[in-house]
């Protein structure tokens, strides 16, 4: 009896989860087994990270447990360190191999789906690696919320003017969706929180957005990008275009225009780069480090290997200019995952795979509570209607009815009751209290 083919899906993000989800729905019983390898046992719906940071959505509700939605797949928590595609073998490091000190686990496959996603693109800026804060995971979103609220506590409890100014200055680098939405949501929650401090006012805070290009939110178009700048500046956000961060050593952010800001908060959202695993595969990649794939999402020049999402340079067949590639965003990733799964099944059954093509429906962005911009289906919308469209659009794209219901409940409760303003920094060091009690650590922060 012929053994079923093994399909190895590397990555549990948009592409990985949606590929596996469609495979388990459409594969015949015994036709193939699907193995998903992911560093985390969940998929993060990143468009909701800013709202998780602001407290509008519980952090647990912006993640989708892979084992729950993929009951017919084998989910392995671990990291693929390298791939020998000639031998159809992946070398995996799991929590067990790390704990036991053993060697990497060898996992053979018949079809390979590479969807490891991307990581933050950092630059060799002095002080950035030591003091910068990312905004790509739910852990970073929760940590940033705690950090921002903690700065208000520091400013409220010190008489040192320099310490106070640094605590109340927040620098965000990157004017894309992540940077603008994170700043907008956190500025909102921090402004609200100052109502409960007797010696910190909203006007005492300084929010700075640094963008190297001449506009922000390029995905929504030039007109809405200019509107977003006006909206942010109307809230006393210092938006600096065509400017770069040159240093953030010793809690001082230095910009290319000569400005200097004493600050304890530098949030880095200036783009992403393909996951380092891509370089370790030896498979064909472009000058930017993304896997070269055909319009059918097959690796160019490598049989039985597929890729999509942030880590792949997918040709955009709907673009007017030749050689254009699909934007590495969730809108494309979700659809690419479904086409990729269908193409693998077609290949297993001896049929021809189809080419991926999708005309973008547009983009939406939140600028904080009840504020936003949207460019959907050719229509440009601003303010409250755009913010509402942002919520409706992303709620409709959130996987599973379970998560949709939980997020909707969070929004309802947030609308009916006051916002939470407590920082739970102890979550990042849960053993601090016990270590203090045992006499091996300092007294934990309140």
Automatic annotation (TrEMBL):
Keywords: FAD, Flavoprotein, NAD, Oxidoreductase. It comes from the Bacteria. InterPro entries: FAD/NAD-bd_sf, FAD/NAD-binding_dom, NDH-2. Signal peptide: none annotated. Gene3D superfamilies: 3.50.50.100. Residues 6-337 form the FAD/NAD(P)-binding domain. Belongs to the NADH dehydrogenase family. PANTHER family: NADH DEHYDROGENASE (PTHR43706), NADH DEHYDROGENASE-LIKE PROTEIN RV1812C (PTHR43706:SF45). This is NAD(P)/FAD-dependent oxidoreductase. It comes from Streptantibioticus ferralitis.
């Amino acid at each position: 009896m012929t053994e079923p083919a093994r399909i190895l899906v590397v990555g549990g993000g948009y592409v990985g989860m949606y590929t596996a989800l469609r495979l388990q729905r459409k594969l015949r019983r015994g036709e193939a087994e699907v193995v998903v390898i992911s560093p985390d046992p969940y998929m993060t719906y990143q468009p909701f990270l800013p709202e998780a940071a602001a407290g509008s959505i519980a952090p647990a509700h912006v993640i989708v447990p892979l084992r729950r939605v993929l009951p017919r797949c084998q989910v392995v928590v671990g990291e693929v360190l390298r791939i020998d595609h000639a031998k159809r073998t992946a070398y995996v490091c799991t929590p067990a191999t790390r704990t036991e000190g053993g060697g990497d686990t060898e996992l053979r496959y018949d079809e390979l789906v590479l969807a490891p996603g991307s990581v933050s693109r950092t630059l060799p800026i002095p002080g950035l690696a030591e003091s910068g804060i990312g905004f790509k995971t739910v852990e970073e979103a929760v940590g940033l919320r705690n950090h921002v609220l903690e700065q208000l506590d520091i400013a409220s409890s010190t008489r040192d003017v320099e310490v106070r100014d640094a605590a109340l200055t927040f620098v965000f680098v990157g004017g894309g969706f992540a940077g603008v939405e994170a700043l907008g949501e956190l500025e909102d929650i921090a402004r609200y929180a100052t109502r409960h401090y007797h010696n910190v006012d909203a006007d005492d805070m300084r929010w700075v957005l640094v963008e190297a290009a001449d506009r922000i939110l390029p995905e929504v178009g030039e007109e809405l990008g200019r509107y977003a700048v006006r909206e942010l500046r109307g809230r006393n956000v210092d938006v600096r275009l065509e400017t770069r961060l040159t240093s953030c050593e010793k809690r001082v952010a230095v910009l290319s225009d000569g400005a200097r800001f004493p600050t304890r908060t530098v949030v880095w959202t200036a783009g992403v780069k393909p996951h380092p695993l891509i370089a370790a595969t030896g498979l064909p990649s472009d000058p930017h480090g993304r896997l070269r794939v055909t319009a059918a999402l097959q690796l160019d020049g490598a049989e039985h290997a597929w890729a999509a999402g942030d880590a792949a340079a997918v040709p955009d067949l709907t673009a007017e200019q030749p050689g254009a590639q699909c934007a590495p965003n969730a809108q494309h990733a979700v659809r690419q995952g479904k086409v990729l799964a269908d193409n693998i099944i077609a290949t297993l059954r001896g049929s021809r795979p189809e080419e991926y093509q999708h005309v973008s429906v547009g983009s939406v962005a939140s600028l904080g509570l009840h504020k936003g911009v949207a460019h959907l289906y050719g229509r440009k919308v601003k303010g409250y209607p755009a913010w509402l469209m942002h919520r409706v659009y992303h709620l409709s794209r959130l996987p599973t009815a379970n998560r949709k219901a939980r997020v909707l409940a969070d929004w309802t409760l947030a609308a009916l009751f006051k916002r939470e303003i407590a920082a739970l920094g102890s979550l990042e060091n849960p053993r601090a209290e016990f270590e203090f009690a045992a006499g091996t650590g300092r007294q934990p922060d309140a």
